[in-house]
Design brief:
heterodimer; A: 254 residues; alpha+beta; seven-stranded antiparallel beta sheet; 6 helices; 14 strands; B: extended
């Protein structure tokens, strides 16, 4: 996955993501595609979650999945989730604890769903996503409506390891997360961070728009054979646009 | 090409005018005023075939990885495993299972799979 939050020169916050899923989960040698990714695309739908005839939040989801991995609460905040792979403090320990009966941790999908249903502010969402015990490690990428409201939260099972905040006064007009801790180099065969960062700097803060972000997320290998969809979000207007993606050959598997 | 990959930054592709990005994605309203058992019924019925196909792939992959142990644990101990989940989540997954005619254990596995994948 690749998630980006960018702030334009007028303080508008844009949040975009590529959802990549299915790595190492069955390669179709005949069609050069990932089995799982191909099965996921037809299940994509836009979910409008309403209460008393008013939209509570919107989510891009796969049919049958009740959690939230890409969502927006209009005029409040937006959230995307990226997988985090780690050997130390991996989710295996959390899952075994769960199976053995210790149920203090939260499954990410159910937690994010609860946040969207019950939490109304960027700060409260940030606080809950930073502190709740989890079953597995994860990255939360949270965007808001005001200047500076954008953060990537690097989570272990029991605590937050790192925040990467938008801060235009320090020159940080975008934050970007793939599937690697930002203080470590990505795996050299899976470096989407470098091309995505390069392309963000090419478009510049002046083009931090849906169009600019779509172009960045359309650049290979940020776009790759695992990419199921691209979503563009603007919380202030409540806009959430999603596009199903295929990566035409020549295209990298991840 | 060997990594690192170096495609030039793309420009001017938005909005996409042709190809799969033009595919219209269906919108479903999930009414949170309804009891959890009724929120997902229409979607589950409409997409039952696709969900089954996806879960078949997941089960095959999980079997290859864990030799069927994980699926046996989920099938055998499902009520115990779901014990600590939010009640509404259990009710929603049960309703999806019934509407799509897919065993509850498989819907449960599917809902945890994004996290399991990282393992």
């Amino acid at each position: 996955c690749t998630s980006i939050i960018a702030e334009d020169k007028h303080g508008e916050i844009f949040h975009a993501r590529n959802l990549d899923f299915g790595l190492l989960l069955g390669w179709d040698f005949k069609n050069d595609t990932w089995l799982l990714t191909e099965k996921l695309r037809p299940l994509i739908f836009n979910g409008e979650f309403v209460r008393e005839n008013k939209t509570v939040f919107k989510a891009v989801n796969f049919a049958g999945y009740i959690g939230v991995i890409t969502g927006l609460k209009p005029q409040k905040y937006s959230l995307t989730v990226n997988e985090r792979f780690t050997l130390k403090g991996s989710g295996i320990a959390g899952a075994i604890k769960w199976i053995l009966g210790t149920r203090t941790g939260n499954w990410m999908g159910f937690l994010t769903r609860k946040v969207f249903e019950t939490v109304d502010t960027f700060e409260d969402a940030k606080n809950i996503l930073s502190t709740k015990e989890l079953i597995g490690p994860i990255y939360f990428i949270l965007g808001g409506t005001k200047s500076g409201e954008g953060v990537t939260i690097t989570r272990s099972l029991d605590r937050t390891l790192d925040y990467n905040n938008l801060n235009v006064t320090n020159g940080t007009w975008f934050v970007l997360e793939t599937n690697y801790d930002r203080w470590k180099a990505p795996l050299f065969i899976d470096d989407r961070r470098t091309p995505a960062t390069k392309c963000m700097n090419v478009i510049g803060q002046g083009n931090a728009t849906f169009a600019g972000l779509f172009d960045v997320l359309n650049t290979k290998p940020v776009l790759n054979k695992l990419t199921a969809y691209t979503t563009l979000m603007h919380v202030k207007s409540g806009t959430m646009d999603t596009y199903i993606r295929y990566c035409a050959d020549p295209c990298w598997p991840w | 090409q060997f990594p690192p990959y170096t495609q030039d930054c793309q420009q001017g592709l938005y909005p996409p005018t042709d190809g799969p990005a033009q595919t219209v994605i269906p919108t479903y309203t999930i009414n949170l005023d309804l009891p959890p058992e009724r929120r997902w019924v229409q979607l589950a019925r409409d997409k039952a075939r696709g969900i089954k196909e996806l879960i078949d792939v997941i089960k095959g992959l999980v079997r290859g990885f864990a030799g069927g142990i994980l699926i046996r644990i989920i099938d055998k101990d499902l009520p115990k495993l779901m014990g600590g989940l939010p009640e509404t989540a259990v009710a929603e997954m049960t309703a999806i299972s019934q509407a799509a005619d897919i065993p509850l254990g498989e819907i449960f596995l599917y809902n945890l799979f994004y996290e399991f994948d990282a393992f």
